[in-house]
Design goal:
By secondary structure, this protein is mostly beta strands. The protein has one helix at 145-154; strands at 6-9, 12-15, 18-23, 29-30, 40-41, 43-52, 65-66, 71-74, 85-87, 94-96, 106-110, 126-129, 141-143, 160-163. The protein is built from one helix and 14 strands; from the N terminus they run βββββββββββββαβ. It has an eight-stranded mixed β-barrel with strand order 1-2-3-13-12-11-6-14. A three-stranded antiparallel sheet has the order 9-8-10, with no helix packed on it. Strands 4-5 form a two-stranded parallel ribbon. It is globular.
């Protein structure tokens, strides 16, 4: 573990020596992640992407990519694009990346079950803004907007996310 790792444990995240209140999945932390369990997978993951809403926020980093209208994330384990960023229309189950709420104004993408997805092991684990302080997620890590922006401005591709 290095100072550049993002570490999540027991309701807080540590990065660059800073402790940040954060939440995980409503199903807790698990060693056996499966689609729809609402759990966050324990282990060491890598940050592989950074997305942002250009109509709402400035790019947090020079490697951030914009979220456009029609950007979707396929969460259908039966579809060939399972656990991938896609474009509408998509004849499968998906999540809108360009949401009406601010949860995905900035999104860090981990390599959980990516790029080669194992069917049923759960789709994306993101780091994003929480719905409200302390609210659990469907399996992602969430935190306050200001804290998320602080991390997004400093993180680089390949940074490790350690979930304990």
């Amino acid at each position: 573990m290095t100072a550049l790792d993002i570490v999540y444990s027991k309701g807080r995240l540590r990065y660059y020596g800073q402790y940040i209140a954060a939440t995980a999945g409503r199903g807790g932390i698990t060693d056996y992640k499966c689609e729809g369990d609402g759990a966050t997978p324990r282990g060491t993951h890598s940050i592989v992407g950074l997305l942002y809403r250009p109509d709402r926020v400035a790019p947090p980093s020079d490697w951030a990519k914009p979220i456009y209208p029609g950007d979707l994330w396929c969460d259908d384990p039966k579809h060939p694009a399972y656990n991938q960023l896609c474009r509408a229309p998509l004849p499968a189950s998906f999540e809108h990346m360009r949401r009406s709420d601010p949860q995905y104004d900035v999104v860090l993408i981990t390599n959980w079950n990516w790029p080669e997805a194992t069917l049923g092991h759960g789709s994306a684990i993101f780091i994003h803004q929480w719905r409200r302080p302390g609210a659990s997620t469907a399996g992602c890590i969430a935190m306050a907007r200001a804290d998320l922006h602080w991390i997004a401005e400093r993180v680089s591709p390949g940074c490790r996310l350690i979930i304990r």
